[in-house]
Amino acid sequence: MKLQQFNSLFRIPTYRLFLVCMLLQGMAISISAPFLAVYFTTRLEVSIATFGLFTAVTLMAGVLFSSWIARRSDQPGARKKILVSAMICNALAFAGYLWIHDFTLLFIYMTVLTALGSPAMPQLFAAAREAVNSATDVDHAVANSTLRSAFSLGFITGPLLGTLLIAYIGYIGIFSSTCFIFLINALLFFFLLKKAPEPPSIGASSGGIHIKLHQDARIYMPFLITTLLYMAHWMNNLNASLFIIHHLGGGTREVGWISSLCAGLEIPIMLGLGLLASKYPNRSLMLWGSLMGAAYYVIVLFSTELWHLLAGQLLLAFFVAVISAIGISYMQDLLPSMPGYASTLYSNASTLGRLFGSLVGGWTAGVWGYRNSYWVCLLLVLISLGMLVVTQQLSKEKRQTLSL
């Protein structure tokens, strides 16, 4: 039965296309990401604080533009145009690193181009959702988990490729390769992506519906939950390596081992979660994922040896797999007739979580220390757990109202 669920995915028209493009998307994002801070501080000669400002502004510009596009993305025929245009804009954005060497000019250029390219990821998930909707024997969570696993595989291999490119070619190699991969995705979508089936009549053609949905606690509560969980996750991402070095006596080798272990565990867990989601509600899996995250942060808070953190990676991998693979299904299921809008809500929540997590994580570590910053992570996850319980109660009340 489990094998049949995965086999049925590949009988969906264009699903293989989405898998390949998601793999390439993960590679494109991760090839240059580990080296950007070094590039800005050494080649452009700006401070790390200035680089942080650059990151924050470009992320916020992406959130604003992708939100605006989301209101139009669920209209017939819009998805393919948005995907192709966004991929081309991402390619042009990274091309800017090749010929713009003035920080102010690059700041303006990247803010505009990365914002225009920001709809690529949510619209890719939305296009896949539309394809899955046309199949009657496929679970949405299985499809999303498999897609997210492809992205994770690309995200793991990207830095390895980037390391080789920067060693033998330099920054030109990583930026050129990133442009090339985005262009490949644009060409694949242009030539191979077919028009999606017509959406139901209750779809997103009505512009005012979005405002009403945002006023519905069943929609904005999951948005806040996703933001808080990503915020906790990103605080850990920011501080874990320095915590290992300064508090547990590890070095860069141990940091690499622990990070690789977590990344490697995420992929099989994501695939397994897709199968579990066919039996259990996404909200329940989000609840279990949050509990695993809380348990991980408790382990970090009281850890005294490296093996404590090493053992905790299984809990962290489950937590990250849930918010990455199940989180988007959780959001899409709330708005089944508006996959583009729902996917963008998830994408924006994760982006805001990463942004606030970086800012708060850096501040708390500087003021209270690396270990004590994990109390904030734990608090964020516990708040999210409480909100998940509240949304479950809201859902029960809604069902009771409808049955009367």
TrEMBL record:
Transmembrane annotation, as ranges: 17-40, 46-70, 82-100, 106-128, 149-168, 174-193, 219-235, 255-278, 285-304, 310-331, 372-390
Superkingdom classification of source: Bacteria
Organism: Paenibacillus taichungensis
A Pfam short name: MFS_1
SUPFAM superfamilies hit by this protein: MFS general substrate transporter
InterPro entries, per the entry: MFS, MFS_dom, MFS_trans_sf
Protein name stated in the entry: Sugar efflux transporter
Keyword check for Nucleotide-binding: no
Keywords per UniProt: Cell membrane, Membrane, Sugar transport, Transmembrane, Transmembrane helix, Transport
Domain Major facilitator superfamily (MFS) profile: 14-396
